[in-house]
Known about the structure:
By secondary structure, the protein is of the alpha+beta class. It has three helices and six strands; from the N terminus they run αααββββββ.
Amino acid sequence: DIFYDLLALQFAQSIDDVSFNLARKEMFGATLFAATNHDHMIEPSTRKNSCLRRNFLLKSILLINLALMYVGLIYVTLQQRNGAYVCPSISVNFGDEVWEEALIHGHERPRFLEYSYFNGIYKVEGNFNGRPR
């Protein structure tokens, strides 16, 4: 696959080179002839102070943005740790499912487990070891 990709890239590059050389020989018109035969020079800016001020301004804005993001992250983390985003109650409905051979921790033999016993609304009443009770 990569061989065919490189082959296609080489083909496209050769078409580009041929087109450029034909344009340099005025085969595609005067506009492309002038564009391909004109020397383009790029001169760097001599105004260093304006660039330095602009870079300093951009870096300052990014630093302030980063600091605000960290402050927001710390605030949300502390609120979450204090339980500000915990639901005060949760409604559970397992239906009428029954598990006949349930192995329950602390019991030696399988037990009969009906999920409908656990249906209802559970309310948070404090914390125990950092978890809702």
